TrEMBL record:
<dbReference type="InterPro" id="IPR005343">
    <property type="entry name" value="Noc2"/>
</dbReference>
<protein>
    <submittedName>
        <fullName>Nucleolar complex protein 2 like</fullName>
    </submittedName>
</protein>
<dbReference type="GO" id="GO:0030691">
    <property type="term" value="C:Noc2p-Noc3p complex"/>
</dbReference>
<dbReference type="GO" id="GO:0005654">
    <property type="term" value="C:nucleoplasm"/>
</dbReference>
<dbReference type="GO" id="GO:0042273">
    <property type="term" value="P:ribosomal large subunit biogenesis"/>
</dbReference>
<dbReference type="GO" id="GO:0005730">
    <property type="term" value="C:nucleolus"/>
</dbReference>
<comment type="similarity">
    <text>Belongs to the NOC2 family.</text>
</comment>
<dbReference type="Pfam" id="PF03715">
    <property type="entry name" value="Noc2"/>
</dbReference>
<keyword id="KW-0539">Nucleus</keyword>
<dbReference type="GO" id="GO:0030690">
    <property type="term" value="C:Noc1p-Noc2p complex"/>
</dbReference>
Length: 363
């Protein structure tokens, strides 16, 4: 038994620290032990791999992004072998994340806030977001979804300053992912409009890396040049970039792209016109205040697209209501389809505005 335990520890260590091929081979060993041996070993595998992942994700480097993604994907595969057994492990982890967040919100102490705004915390919540997205449709894990949503929204509202826009955007992305995979509506529009108010920091969208943020090369605390890194690589915006002149433009573009993804998920829903009403009001107000011509055109185009979709859905609803109304009235007539006089009278009465569906209901 001790030999098996030592073998597992070694496999986990090589999985989390080894190079690509060694890490993959080590995971195959862990997965085999978890699926073939006694159920107690499965629980042990879950605990050991998660603790190793947490320790490894404490420090984040762009060069390690591929390996971090591999670790997340393999943990999700391991935890998905038996959802009934892994559920409690995931729930306990999310509850611990929620407690840390709750403590930070309650005390607002520097040390408590640091426990939330670090890569370890971000990578852990990102891991469970992916786990929920992969398993929600086939398993009853709604409680995990609800807790995850609360943690993400709490993170976004806890750090409202412009230096934390990358963190807030990351939370919005994960909320959009949860909404898309679960089919549960998550009201996140307010988070986007909060970001539109920030000025002085440059955020850009890079075609290769997605969300991106300009990060300066500092020499003697002076910004000498700008390089573009994916937003996922940035946790806190450097102070010397907070007042960048192009902040408003790029922040607006990034926020609109995220808001577009949110609306896209619900653009075919019958309640989309109501969903878009308040954001449209805020977008129009924001549009009227813009002085940049490029932003002015892009925001207007975005507003027009939302209005067009709302009109299409409303038009479809009207068509459907009229179809049901006419069918109901037609079922009550006694004349033949060949009776042209009666048909003309029917058309005059119900289709030319004398009586419409709404009027008929009022009567």
């Amino acid at each position: 038994m001790d030999n098996w335990f030592l073998f597992m520890q070694l496999s986990v260590h090589l999985w989390v620290t080894g190079e690509e091929s060694l890490s993959f081979s080590s995971f195959l060993v862990i997965r085999e032990m978890a699926s073939k041996l006694h159920s107690r070993w499965y629980d042990t595998c879950l605990v050991k791999t998660y603790k190793a992942f947490v320790a490894h994700s404490k420090f984040f480097k762009p060069t390690k992004m591929k390996h971090l993604k591999f670790l997340q994907d393999t943990i999700i595969e391991l935890y998905s072998i038996d959802i009934q057994k892994s559920y409690q492990q995931v729930l306990a982890s999310l509850q611990q994340l929620a407690k840390s967040l709750q403590l930070a919100i309650r005390t607002m102490m520097k040390e408590d806030l640091k426990r939330v705004r670090n890569w370890q915390y971000i990578n852990c919540i990102s891991l469970w977001v992916k786990f929920i997205c992969c398993n929600f449709k086939e398993h009853d894990i709604e409680s995990l979804l609800s807790l995850c949503i609360l943690v993400l929204k709490g993170m976004a509202y806890l750090f409202p300053g412009p230096r934390y826009v990358p963190l807030r955007f990351r939370c919005m992305q994960m909320l959009n992912q949860l909404s898309l995979s679960s089919g549960v509506f998550i009201p996140v529009a307010s988070l986007f409009f909060d970001c539109l108010e920030y000025k002085g920091k440059e955020i850009v969208t890079d075609s290769t890396h997605g969300w991106a943020i300009a990060v300066s090369n500092l020499a003697n605390n002076t910004c000498t040049s700008l390089t573009y890194l994916a937003l996922i690589f940035v946790r806190l915006v450097p102070k010397n970039l907070v007042k960048s002149q192009s902040f408003q433009k790029e922040c607006v573009l990034s926020a609109i792209e995220l808001l577009s993804a949110h609306f896209l998920q619900w653009s075919h829903h019958i309640s989309f016109p109501e969903l878009a009403t308040f954001p449209l009001i805020l977008l129009r107000r924001f549009h009227d205040k813009l002085t940049d011509n490029t932003l002015h055109r892009q925001v207007k185009r975005f507003v027009d697209q939302i209005l067009d979709r709302c009109w299409r859905i409303s038009a479809c609803n009207i068509v459907e209501q009229n179809r049901e109304f006419i069918e109901k009235k037609r079922d009550g007539v006694s004349f033949s389809p060949n009776d042209q006089v009666a048909i003309d009278s029917f058309i005059q009465k119900y289709l030319n505005g004398r009586i419409c569906a709404s009027d008929d209901k009022a009567q």
